[in-house]
């Protein structure tokens, strides 16, 4: 059971790298008339995804 869980999460790690490339290159927003709004949304989504991926450093 533990091996299956570890295997699943290792696959997610590879998927997250490919997902980042996909998000950066191929996302088409329905609000394409407002490109700046769409770009801000992409940046916010990617920033949230990256912050979840990296452990946060807290100051003591």
UniProtKB/TrEMBL annotation:
Keywords carried by this UniProt record: Membrane, Transmembrane, Transmembrane helix
Transmembrane segments: 27-46
Superkingdom, taxonomy of origin: Bacteria
Keyword Transmembrane: yes
Protein name as catalogued: Uncharacterized protein
Organism from which the protein derives: Paenibacillus thiaminolyticus
């Amino acid at each position: 059971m533990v091996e299956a869980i570890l295997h699943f999460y290792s696959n997610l790690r590879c998927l997250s790298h490919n997902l980042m490339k996909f998000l950066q290159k191929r996302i088409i927003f329905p609000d394409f008339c407002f490109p700046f709004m769409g770009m801000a949304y992409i940046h916010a989504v990617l920033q949230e995804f990256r912050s979840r991926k990296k452990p946060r450093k807290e100051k003591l």
